[in-house]
Amino acid sequence: MIRVEIRGENIEVTDAIRTFIEDKVNKLDRYFSDDRDVFAHANIKTYQNKMGKVEITVPMKGLTLRAEERHDDLYVAVDAVVEKLERQIRKHKTKINRKFREQDENHVDLFQVLNDQEEEESNEDEIKVVKSKEFTLKPMDAEEAILQMNMLGHDFFVFNDRYTESTSIVYKRKDGKYGLIETN
Fold first, then answer.
1. What is the total count of domains within the chain?
2. Model-level pTM?
3. Helices in the chain by DSSP H: which ranges?
């Protein structure tokens, strides 16, 4: 059984909400072997416009599953988040199995065996790089990088920070503001 820690922001976590989230998250239990202690952290938040956000994180050794969904119906958001987590698990399981089959090694599967139909579904969701670009990073500050990003019409922009001389990334957030990721 997956142990679920639920935290609410601007909302009281009632017994009904707690039970619903725990029941939905525990449907993922079938993907984990019995000897694993699995924890899930659920964060639910409501905004003034009655929109709600559900975020569930399942930290594990070597892998962190995370999904979030915004919806005006909290229960619909929970369903959608659990579906996203299930897709992530199936993708990861397929990726691991493919890697070990290619290496022709005996391995211990992180997840219980899924039927062939589910494996075929996850093959359709395979991640493929369809385009590759190469460019020289120009030294600039974050403000100039944001201007460049907006001129290109992109959601992110990679640049060399003029002051720290390290690679940084600016990105446009869902709320329309900007974020900065700095590397060491």
1. 2
2. 0.56
3. 15-25, 74-103, 116-124, 142-152
